[in-house]
């Protein structure tokens, strides 16, 4: 590691006084994403955020080459001259940081936050775990997150990071029905239990399916392709769900 690079313990914490210090600064060109040389699924040039459709995730051009972009599949995205790395809604944004990159460039996250200032109500720091022992760094980043009003979300892969970004966009305008008081709270749990009894289906998958289709009845009527494009499901898991639901519910009439 170069002589100028500092360990996580040297991170400056005075930068994030919530009352001030978010001044202008020069932001490094690199975002911590390693270029893969692959073509991104969307190739539109950078445009102003006002000109972009409301259904798209806005991507800062500095993220070009980040493998995360390959896994934003269920919502459209396009490049835009925005300050964060990703904008998932009118009040929601994300910065992306890998632990390895942070070890090499500890000032990077500070400079990005200076530039972001107080913009956006929900500010996510997506931290990709790509070193054997990330915990000291995560501890320091958590401290930064508290001071800078960030929600820190560790991810283990580019695929997981992409799924998180697209889920924020998918649920941007969803009503909070799933967290409202239910007339029969036991019924929802029974449906979740039934879905999670299917191999490879976890509680997050079950909640996603219920949110997308609205009810178990609508899910039972869905075809295999429609189930497979739900966030986090995919073809293999969709086939298990499709066949299991018909075995459990159709044959038991």
From TrEMBL:
GO MF term set: damaged DNA binding; single-stranded DNA binding
Keyword Glycoprotein: no
Region feature Disordered, mapped onto this chain: 25-47
Assigned keywords, A-Z: DNA damage, DNA repair, DNA-binding, Nucleus
Leader peptide range in chain numbering: none
Primary location recorded for the protein, binned into one broad class: nucleus
UniProt cross-references to NCBIfam families, sorted A to Z: rad10
The protein, known as: ERCC1-like central domain-containing protein
